[in-house]
Amino acid sequence: MSTLFDISEVHLSWRPFFSRHQGLIEKCFAELDGAITPSRDLVLRVFTYPLDEVRVLIVGQDPYPGAGVADGLAFSAQADEKIPASLRNIFKEYVEDLGLAAPTSPDLSAWAERGVALLNRTLTTSPGERNAHLDTSWREFTYKVAEELAARDVVAILWGSYASELAPLFEYKITSVHPSPLSARRGFFGSKPFSRANVLLGEIGKSPIDWTL
What we know:
By secondary structure, this protein is an alpha/beta fold. It has 7 helices and 4 strands. A 4-stranded parallel beta sheet has the order 2-1-3-4, with helices on both faces. The longest helix has 14 residues, at about 85-100. It starts with 14 loop residues before the first helix and ends in a 10-residue tail after the last helix.
């Protein structure tokens, strides 16, 4: 019996999905070689929150490569870390879009607890290296995750080219360039993703997200 993945790692509501795709998730882990970030116990963290409470999906690229920075949620980082560059830009847009004070911590778990799934297209990378696992099966797996969420009329916020590959799946979506310093000024700033997501939720009869951090 494989020990690559145990169903107890994910929330009860996600277990039927993982049971259907157990071979694929085990393939993802089998393809990993050497040290990874985030740590193995955090790789599937996004799936420890209830599936039936997800109303918004935010999709990024891959985890922060700095050792000990990534916490298993896209764009989020361990609370005692400095705010990474992409997240600083997300917070700038958050302030402009919502009129809220700038967050001082990179920990986005409050969003996850309120129905926002924070998913990277690849769930791991090698410490110190971006996109190290881009050619593994993670993108196939996260495509399946996106299919599941799209079927539940989740509103998708898709940042960057890898996230935008999922756009055809979603009826309700907001797309823009990635918030990284290399691209944020080419359409991320001013895109108002947070308020627009709440407008879309209202249009389909779902309650808005409390984005306050």
